[in-house]
Structure formats: C-alpha cells, structure tokens
Design goal:
The protein is an alpha/beta fold. The chain is built from 16 helices and 22 strands. The chain has four domains: 177 residues, TIM Barrel (Alpha-Beta Barrel); 53 residues, Oligo-1,6-glucosidase, domain 2 (Alpha-Beta Complex); 119 residues, no CATH class; 85 residues, Golgi alpha-mannosidase II (Immunoglobulin-like). It has an eight-stranded parallel β-sheet with strand order 13-12-11-7-4-3-15-14, with helices on one face. Helix 5 runs parallel beside helix 6 and helix 12 runs antiparallel to helix 13.
Length: 562
C-alpha cells in the first residue's frame, strides 16, 4: 500500500510504500541485565518471557534482542562462538522459539543482533583458521606477515585499546581485530564467509524472527591494507548480495549500526530502491559531545543548537529516500536523562521532554530498557566495580598514558557503557527484583525510588508518557509521514519543530533547560488552537503571542486547520 507523503511545489504527490516498521516502536533488551529467572545473577530468556506482558502494556511492537548466542562473553556476547546455538547463561534454542511464539501472541516481533564483522576467537572457524596457513578456514579471517622488524603490518589501533593486530606464534603471522583480540575480524572478501553468514541468517529467519540489528555493519567492507575501515569499497555490494540471499521475499526490519554514516551515506543503505537495509543507526547527534581527538572519554558540553542542526539535517536530507532511526541511548551509550536532561530535581519532567522531543520526529523510535522509567547513569567508586571491556581497557591504556584517574572516571561516569548495563529496576525489593542471586553487575543504588512497580502505580510516571507516545504514533499519520520544519532554530534552550501532512499540523515545543523561559512566538504560530496531544505539565490548547515555559516543559499541539 502506498501513502501520499509530500506535495511538491508542482503539486506532485510523493508516494511512499508503507512498511509495517514505519509506525512501529522498537524496544532494545540487553539480556544479561533485563530479568534473571533462575537467580544465577545473570538475566536470561526465561526472564524476558516473564516480562512480555509488561512490554505489551508499554505498547512496543518489536524487541531488538542484544546477542544471546554462545560466547566466551569477552564483550558480553558481541564475540560469538556459535551463531546457531544459545549461551547456557541465557537458556536454549527452545527458549528462543518460545520467546518468538509468546511475543507473537502479544503482537510483538523479535529482531536479533547480527554480529558478523567479527566472531569470537573461540569460534570453530577461527580455531581452524589459526591452525595452519594452509587451513581451508585461513582466509575466513585477515592474516598478514609481520614487517621485517617483526612489528605489526600497520599501526591500526583497536577501539578497545592496543594494537589492532595480534601475533599468533603457531603460524608466525598477525590477525586483525578492530575490537578485542578475542574478536578477530571476518574476511568479507571471502565468498565462503558471505555464504556461511547468509545461510545462518536464513536459518534464523526460518525460525520466525522478523529481522536483524546489524552490528558495525559499516565495517564489513573494509580494506585493511589501505586502512579503509568504514564505508569500504565493497560494502554496498556485500549488502545488496546479502539482501538478495536472505531478505528477498520476506517482510523484515533490518537496521544497520553505522557510526560513520552521513545522510548521503544513509541513503545508500536505506533508499528502498537500492534493496539493502530498512534503516541505519547514525550517531552524529551522539558524537557531538565527544572530543575530536580523545573521543567519549573527554566529554564536550551538550550544545543544543548544534544538536538541532544535526537532527534537522537528518530529518530533511534523509526524509524522502531513506528512513531515520530515532534514539537517545542503547547498551553502548549513557542514560538519556543523565546525559541530556536532569537526573535530579527535574528527572521526571526532563525524561518526558526528551521522549516527546524524539518521538514526534520522522523515523522509527527505539527505546532502550529502563529509559521508559527514567533510569539514570551510575557512579561506582572503584574502577574494579566496572565490567565493560572497553571501559576497563581504555582506563588502563589512558591512565598509563598520563590521564589522571579522576579525569578518566569522569569520562566513565558521563559516557561509559556500564551506565546502560546496570540491572533493570523492577521494584524496591532485593536487587530491584532483577535477581535473588548475586547480580553480575552492581545495581544503581537509586532503584528503591526508580523502578517499574512504582512507575505503574503512578499515573503521571514516565512510563505512561512513553505508553501514550507509542499510541499517538499509531493514531496520527502526520507523526509517521509528515514533513519536518524546524522552529526557533537558533534558540539555545528550546528545541521546537512542526510536522505537516495534508491539512494535519503538529507543533512540538521543548524547553531543554531547568529554568522557566519566555518564548515569543512568530506571527505564523500566534493564535493557533488545537488538541494538546501530550504534555509534561498542564495541557496547552492554544499558542498566544508568547509562552512562559516551565523547566523542561514539553508539549505537542495538533493544530486544527480549516
Ligand atoms: O559497537 C560498536 C562501537 O563502535 C561501539 O562499541 C563504540 O566503540 C563505543 O561503544 C562508543 O564509544 C558495537 C556494539 O554495539 C558494541 O556493544 C560492541 O562492543 C562492538 O560493536 C563490537 O561488537
Ligand atoms: Ca539467569
């Protein structure tokens, strides 16, 4: 079915093929931190199944399941040793089948996390590959001879610290790994690797999943010798071949993680005519708070004007031949309310404001577990309390290079990945109801105040704000398909925009500050009346000449146009 989305100046209606994921809302589960049903301290599949009614109540339509496959857990499962079996910590293949079936009963689809830029070094492919230079699996990975002085082939630095090359005594060569040395990069130039992965993908699709989130998919087209890592020369050919071999004939959601994507690059992935992916996760609105040289460990202050420029660019440039993903956080990113709002006095108001600001944009929204109840960042005193390999490795490397303990801890407090990985806070009993065992990672000590049970008991909670946003997306096509126009683009504290589809118009105004502020409206907005779709204070039904916005006030007004 097509939908008329845009009337061009010449009055030409732009049509778009409607997809089921256009008005869907995706919920990301990080299994080890979601719910522990057998009290071994580790979240599991049975725990997820036990919470499907909660997710149904929230109203989400898809679960993105972070990896549950067999893994030595060097990178918490993003290092896979068997793509077609389940880590015993999480359960079994039968429990995945049960999750798929139980979710379907609640009209919830499952997409799996596809980590195919690299495998674990404990995968049989790598075990065989490292045995000898003549192994039939040798070229499943990227091996190079040392330089004449024995040094690595080049100075590529791993994202998890140290050289991106690990010397293997057995065959006297180095293998390449962009992440940990237990995550050797697969060689995607090898047709056998492509065939093996395509076969595995179809095996999962035949089990009833509805698509994939594709880990660092921008890296699989790399040219290691030229040190071209992202958006490599072969990337889109590989994705089109993958699409032909697996997605064709299936109605899937596929979202590629692409840290380096620009709107132009994103069109290559998500333009429906190119038969690659549904959409990508781009990170430009995230990396604006990273230091250009030192990255996330030396955070830059959040600049709302810069943020709005990025969002507006993506909303307008990708809008018509591609599709945006909309998110504040995931398992690699800090908690939204701590990073962009106020985790203290205005936690509830600012969490609701952030939700409204993101969910009224054009694209598919993603909610990360705990975001819907306003879970916050955590500050553990000792580095030993942290578990994330990226945090621990970079702490060692950077403090050894002279960065002070205090400076590094500040970077971890603001941008460390364990902020997102503390166990889900279900209630105010032992371990927040996550487990009766010893949790694999410490809880956030604020769980007695911030938890699902108290949120469900409070009609004004963040939870019900998210529930309403999800429902609004279903009820108003202007939210899904409407044009985007920025408002107050230069205002340093207000993020406002409007959406328009035919005679439907929604004005969204968000105060991104903890102070009340006076907002003088342009003539074009003055006097407009309408239905207040959602607000985190009293409903506003009309726009006068100026507004006095409360701290973090946010609302969306559906304008009645004659
Ligand atoms: O993340 C890719 C990635 O680049 C991020 O880990 C990034 O390096 C950092 O977190 C942001 O500063 C994906 C997965 O989401 C992540 O969990 C894995 O650790 C990584 O790939 C390797 O599979
Ligand atoms: Ca468990």
């Amino acid at each position: 079915m097509t939908i008329d989305v845009k009337k061009s100046d010449a009055g030409i209606i732009q049509t778009l093929d409607k997809k089921w994921w256009h008005d869907a809302v995706i919920y990301q589960i990080y299994p080890r931190s979601f719910m522990d049903a057998n009290n071994d301290g580790m979240g599991d599949l049975a725990g997820i199944i036990s919470k499907l009614d909660y997710l149904k109540e929230l109203g989400i339509n898809v679960i993105w399941l972070s990896p549950v496959f067999k893994s030595p857990m060097d990178d918490n499962g993003y290092d896979i040793s068997d793509y077609q079996d389940i880590a015993s910590e999480f359960g079994s293949l039968e429990e995945v089948d049960k999750l798929i079936a139980e979710a379907a009963k609640r009209d919830i689809r499952i997409i799996m996390d596809l980590v195919i830029n690299h495998s674990s070094d404990e995968h049989p492919w790598f075990i065989e590959s490292r045995k000898s230079k003549d192994s039939p699996y040798r070229d499943y990975y990227i091996w190079r001879k040392p330089q004449s002085d024995g040094l690595p082939p080049n100075d590529f630095h791993s994202y998890f610290g140290g050289s991106g090359w690990e010397f293997d005594e057995a065959t006297g060569e180095y293998y390449f790994h962009q992440f940990s040395k237990k995550q050797p990069d697969l060689n995607w130039e090898n047709p056998k690797v492509q065939e093996e992965v395509h076969r595995m993908m179809n095996w999962w699709l035949d089990r009833g999943i509805s698509g994939f989130r594709m880990d660092v998919i921008d890296l699989i087209g790399k040219d290691v010798d030229k040190q071209i890592m992202t958006n490599g020369p072969h990337l889109h050919t590989l994705l089109q071949e993958m699409n032909k071999a697996t997605f064709v004939g299936r109605d899937l959601l596929t979202v590629g993680e692409a840290w380096s994507a620009t709107p132009e690059i994103a069109k290559l992935y998500s333009d429906p005519t190119r038969d690659e992916l549904s959409m990508v996760f781009q990170f430009e609105h995230i990396t604006i708070t990273f230091d250009p040289e030192q990255g996330k460990w030396k955070p830059r202050p959040f600049d709302l004007v810069e943020f709005k420029q990025v969002i507006s660019k993506w909303q307008t440039e990708l809008g018509d031949c591609g599709w945006n993903s909309l998110f504040w956080n995931n398992h690699d990113l800090p908690r939204a309310v701590s990073k962009y709002g106020d985790p203290g006095r205005y936690r509830v108001q600012s969490a609701k404001m952030l939700a409204t600001a993101m969910h009224f944009l054009k694209g598919t929204p993603y909610i990360y577990q705990g975001e819907e109840i306003g879970m916050t960042n955590v500050q553990f005193d000792a580095i030993e309390d942290y578990q994330d390999i990226e945090t621990l490795n970079l702490y060692q490397e950077r403090t050894a290079a002279g960065v002070s303990h205090e400076a590094m801890m500040q970077g971890i407090y603001e941008n460390g990945r364990d902020n997102a990985r503390t166990p889900m806070q279900w209630n105010n009993t032992l371990n927040a109801g996550f487990s009766e065992g010893h949790p694999w990672l410490k809880l956030n000590p604020n769980y007695p105040e911030i938890n699902v049970e108290s949120a469900l008991d409070d009609p004004n909670s963040i939870f019900y704000h998210y529930q309403k946003l999800i429902q609004l997306r279903k009820n108003h096509q202007v939210i899904v398909y409407g044009d985007y126009q920025p408002l107050f683009a230069e205002h340093e504290k207000v993020f406002a925009y409007q959406r328009q589809l035919g005679n439907k118009r929604v004005v969204v105004i968000n105060n991104f500050s903890a102070e009340p502020l006076e907002l003088t409206l342009p003539i074009s907005l003055q006097g407009l009346k309408g239905q207040c779709l959602i607000s985190n204070y009293a409903a506003r039904k009309q726009l006068s000449e100026s507004l006095t916005l409360a701290p973090y006030e946010s609302f969306a007004l559906l304008i009645k146009q004659c």
